[in-house]
Amino acid sequence: MTERIVVVGAALLDGDRLLAARRSAPPELAGRWELPGGKVEPGERPDDALVRELREELGIEAEAVERVPGEWPLKNPYVLWVWTARLRPGSPGPEALQDHDELRWLTPGHLWDVPWLDQDVPAVREIAARLGAQAR
After folding, report:
1. What is the pLDDT of residues 86-116, one digit of tens each?
2. CATH number of the domain bearing residue 13
3. Cα separations in angstroms, 120 against 61, 88, 98, 108
4. Under 8 Å between Cβ of 5 and 40
5. One-character DSSP codes across 9-30
6. What is the domain extent for residue 24?
7. 100 CB contacts (<8 Å, ≥6 apart)?
8. Max Cα separation, the chain?
9. What is the reported pTM?
């Protein structure tokens, strides 16, 4: 059996707003929205990978708060784990630095205004429930 590789995703929250990031690459994912994040490097703790990925992709200083229960299959051998996260005090606001061409803060009533990547939908549903938003 192939060893699974964990990809971390951040449900970055600012009050009741969730950050969504639109993919610019690869072509098959471009234009769809996701929770930002990336692969855990060998020997790296998943929550540390989350902080690193958010720094690289969005130029922010964030902290992982709580893991969202569950894991979601991606292309073999990858699986998605999601954490809620928040900006650290004094962090600059997020910018689309790599792999994304637009960022949007979504309020609970607008969480489903963007076409999420299929693998992110279960985690967004979980976050929606926590924010008291309409489920999809």
Report:
1. 999 999 999 988 889 999 999 999 999 999 9
2. 3.90.79.10
3. 22, 24, 19, 16
4. yes
5. EEEEEETTEEEEEEE--STTTT
6. 5-131
7. 21, 22, 23, 24, 36, 57
8. 44
9. 0.92
